[in-house]
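go over this record:
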Amino acid sequence: MRSVSSMPKKSSSRENSTPPHPKVPVPTARAIVDCGVYTDGKRVPGHFTPKEALTEAEKTDDGFVWIGLHDPDEAQMNDIGSIFDLHPLAVEDAVQGKQRPKLDRYGDTMFLVMRTVCYLDHDVDSISEIVETGEMMVFTGTRFAITVRHGEHTRLAEVRHELEQHPDRLRYGPTAVLHAVADHVVDTYVDVTESISGDIDEMEEAVFTPSSKVGIGSIYQLKREVVELRRAVAPLMIPLDRLVRDKDLPVPQEIRRYLRDVSDHEASVSDHIGYFDDALSGLVNAALAKISVQQNTDMRKISAYAAMAAVPTLIAGIYGMNFDQMWILHQWWGYPATLVVMIVLCLWLLRSFRRNGWL
């Protein structure tokens, strides 16, 4: 008899399982698009790491660092946060993304979240995506401005280059960067709304054209994209208004004037989006009415053809019963006469239906 101890032991699944490969950390430099030091409104020549840039900026009274990040992961963002003493909650929001536009303050640091939008070229009768969204986040402190971008559009290289051409604005420090980025994002809102306005004009023309093939699905798709645009634009009104009016925030008065202009543009875009929503609702009703009219027209045609087919069917059914009492069966002209009657009645019905607009 085999003893229990001599039986082969079953290896556990933990022993057979392959240990997971350790995740290789990606250097923080991979997420950095640009890192510059600015003093007296001008960029300091040279290349710096974030820590070196902060050290260089602290050598002067008005120096600050502007770092641009693109899709940083948790380790990269934590590295930046430790250098510039960013609040862990703000760092977490910057990594996760999908945030509602907002403005948070952590001591001397402000954290502004904005949604970015990009218009995608498409045909007016398509049901593909029209508006692509992303995120833009800006940290501003006494010595730094950090921009975090999620998405492949709304690049900031042009914003940095344009702002570097205006040292008088850069002298206001990191809040000048915040204004420039916010202004750029709102300008993209304006461009997208203009493009969507053109789409709505084309769709209106197509819907009210009798032979057009624009379906109600295309209108619903455009309406859904307008809803997505409104979710990106409308919530930004509160943070911008707070930047303009809240005197406790560390924002120079001159930058507040610039931000007021950005807030006005954002409010104008919100008004346009409200008009788009109303216009598309009207187009949906018009398209449904058009479909209803077309269905009624089709039903009238079907009814007219059915009536024309019923006449010869009725006569042929009666004539085909072949009763001896039907005197026409015994006449040589009975069959030709029946055919003539059928044709005459069908032509009379055809003429009547065409006169009434049914055919």
Q: What stands out?
A: The chain has two domains: 28-291, 296-355. The longest strand covers residues 109-119. Confidence is low (pLDDT under 50) at residues 1-15.
